[in-house]
Each structure stands twice: as structure tokens, then as C-alpha cells.
Amino acid sequence: MNLCDTCNGACCKVLLALETKLMKQDFRCFIAMHKDVTQSAGYLFLESRCRNLGVDGRCNAYEHRPNYCKRFVVGGKLCRACRALYNVA
Ligand code: SF4
Ligand code: SF4
């Protein structure tokens, strides 16, 4: 089974940003106070479902998806962080 078949598009439901050490403490605090922003594993996640994500958890624009999506590493650190956000084992 493909790993992506198990999480219903977790990475397609969030906007992601790396929480860097260079990010000032006050800005991190500001971001964290916003509704729907989650901090996990060194990333900031803003819940925002991609309009191309189908109800079946598959991309409806697969052939024309952005390069960002094409380069996303299945099973990589960011993938695992997204899955953790949605409590997918
Ligand atoms: S890349 Fe990772 S988070 Fe995205 S759908 Fe596949 S398994 Fe889920
Ligand atoms: S374009 Fe497709 S792969 Fe990219 S975030 Fe949207 S649904 Fe996911």
C-alpha cells in the first residue's frame, strides 16, 4: 500500500513554514496566537485545505500540481510532521 493512501492528504490541508531560530521570539509568539496555527516538529502549520484536494484524499490536479508538491518527499520529515498533526500513525 502507498503511504499516501493512509492519511487522506494531510500535507494538502496545511500551509507550512519552517520555524527557524532566526525567527524572532516575538514573531513566533505573534504567529502562535493566531487561530488554526499549530507548532510541531520545528514547523508552523496553518490549516488551509488545498482546493485541488478531493474528498477521496487525492489530488484532482495531479498532472499540473506545483513543483513544491512534486518535490515533497513522501515519508520525509515534513511528511511525518503533517501526518502527526492529523494523528496518522
Ligand atoms: S506525502 Fe505524506 S502527508 Fe502527504 S499525502 Fe503522502 S503520506 Fe500523507
Ligand atoms: S495541488 Fe494537489 S498535491 Fe498539491 S497541495 Fe493541492 S491537492 Fe495536494
Can you walk me through this structure?
With 89 residues, the chain is an alpha+beta fold. The chain has one domain (3-85). Helix content is 25%, strand content 16%. It has helices spanning 25-32, 67-71, 77-85, and strands spanning 14-18, 37-40, 43-47. The chain has a three-stranded antiparallel sheet with strand order 1-3-2, with helices on one face. A hairpin with a 2-residue loop joins strand 2 (37-40) and strand 3. The protein starts with 13 loop residues before the first strand and ends with a helix. Bound molecules: iron/sulfur cluster (SF4) (2 copies). One iron/sulfur cluster binds at residues 3-4, 7, 9-11, 72, 74, 79, 82-83.
Write a brief caption for the model.
The chain has 89 residues and is α+β, with helices and mostly antiparallel strands. The protein has helices at residues 25-32, 67-71, 77-85; strands at residues 14-18, 37-40, 43-47.
Features:
89 residues; alpha+beta; three-stranded antiparallel β-sheet; 3 helices; 25% helix; binds iron/sulfur cluster
